[in-house]
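### Sample
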Amino acid sequence: MLVSWKWLSRYVDLTLPHDELVDRLSLSGLNHEGSETVDGDVVIDLEVTSNRGDCLGHIGVAREIAALTEQKLKIPAIEYQESGAAIDESLAVENKMPEACPRYTARVIRGVKVGDSPEWLQESLKSVGIGVVNNVVDVTNYVMMECGQPLHAFDLAKVGDGKIVVRSGKDKEQLEAIDHRNYDLNDSTCVIADSSDALAVGGVMGGASSEVTEATTDIVLEAAEFVPLSVRRTARRLKLHSPSSFRFERRVDPVGIDWASRRACQLITEIAGGSVAPGVIDTAPEIPARETVLLRPKRVAALLGLEIETAELDKILRSLGCEVSAFADGLQCVPPSWRHDLTREVDLIEEVARIHGYDKIPEDSPIPVAPSSKRRFDTAMERIRGVLTAAGISEAMTPSVVTEKLDQMISPWTELPALQTRTSMLEGARTLRRSLIPSLLQSRAANWASASLIADLFEIAHVYLPAPVGSDSALLPDETYHIGLIAGEDFFALKGTIETLCDRLGVPGELTVAPVQRDGFAKGGAVELSLVGGKEPLRLGFLGFVDDKLVKQWKLTGRVVAAELSADVLVNQSRLVPQQQAVSPFPSIQRDLNLVLPESVRWNELAGLVRKAAKERLADLTYRETYRNEKVDGPDKKRVLFSMELQSQTETLSGGDADSIINELVASCEKQLEAVLLR
């Protein structure tokens, strides 16, 4: 932000020398980038942070100086006469896009004589790098640099049917801007138009078709408020940035909109003549009142480490434009309309610190410390990372926004289409990912391509699952933490890692698998993981071989196993503090069983029957091996060897007791699984 010394002196008495003043401004948050002399005027370059849009005008900077130096701020008085036919007789305004332009105001000035601006006006604009056009346009630029509110003047004769329409852009619609370049508009672009054609890009730049020229006699003066996100999105897409868009992106003073419009009317009639039509068109004249913020002197002392008298706090806040009144424990403050960043008590304390002086805050002030503990979530995440890194899996970090093609490779959690951002957050990427697996697969391929490293990776991050259509939150995704895993060819090794993870987190219940078919996984090579033991099974996630087509597409060698788990389910079910468990004082009995089973029977089915038969007397169950001999056992048969440890909490089990349990188990397996016991 370029600030003219002469221009500033119109609003506040500059009692400090240049060097001291810029130092005070830097220490209060307006960093001094440099100064230079332009035609005998000192021009100061200040860095204005994005939350201080009020300082993008000379009055805003002067207000800061007045507060720092205890000077009086001099705001120009506005006086002009209205005459002639009312504005409604020559102009109408319709706002069809309030979500992008919540407020649009217009005034009409008739009988202006467009020509050169007076020397003082030209010097002011040139000092801050603004080009001179004509007296009407120069006034709109002057007022913008004066108070930070962008304005625009249209030639009334070029506004079709005398009607201004604020609307979205149409398909394949174009606008020639005042820089005489054509820009493509779309339905996300806020357009200022007449009854048929676009006249300007709202909040960014006016159009050439309605610009003020020497032939103009009647003008429409626009002063409006545009939503920062809408302006920023349009300016980026069109690669068209302007002083106006810069200010709208940082928000403007809603009360100052009308002041800026009247100020421009005053200067235009003084410089270019003409008369202001009675009245103003305002699509949203009611401005919501600011909420009161409480400031407690005790809280000021606690945060800053120094005592400041209540009277001094009152004076500082009033100098910044706050409405201040006393209450039992401190001050009630209503922030001014131009300070949208003041919403909390800590914001007011920061303002007090800036104006009172950061240099007065003691360096050795004790900082109060309150004891705290880790959140349950953080403790669980540390344990999860410990297990996965101990298993030789490296942690990765990938973007949450991916390309649509990448997202569609694997999406085990939902078939609903992914949500997309309006503009690409990364080049070509605007899709909110529904799974971590595609990004990890891409990272594994990148590692292999660049360093011949077969990377086993995991990531703990958010995914964004679209809500079902018709639900109360259909517009918002289900944002949940997931754990994604990519590893080599050993399916059972990764399954064992997941089982270890559940064990280290103290997750109760049994981890079970059920075959599922999901796009992106190999046919017959994916399972759904569930936790069984509570009232209802909980879906933990998915595990399986990645489809060979995807593996070849990424030019990877061998097969790839992927898994994705719900971190929320793991954390909610975890028991992070180990609990005491009773240990039986009675001896146990171990038995090995070798069953011939159909090939289709899975281990979890067999294990479930074992647990059901043995009940609380089953101390341990261990899978040993699977053996196949088609010549002896027949086709589609396999032998499964496993060990059982039987133990009672109340008595010593006899051999007969163990045989009874085994016989019951074998009978169940023969009936339900078509199993045959090998003796």
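Residues 113 and 272 are 5 Å apart (CA to CA). This sample (Phenylalanine--tRNA ligase beta subunit) is used throughout the tutorial notebook.
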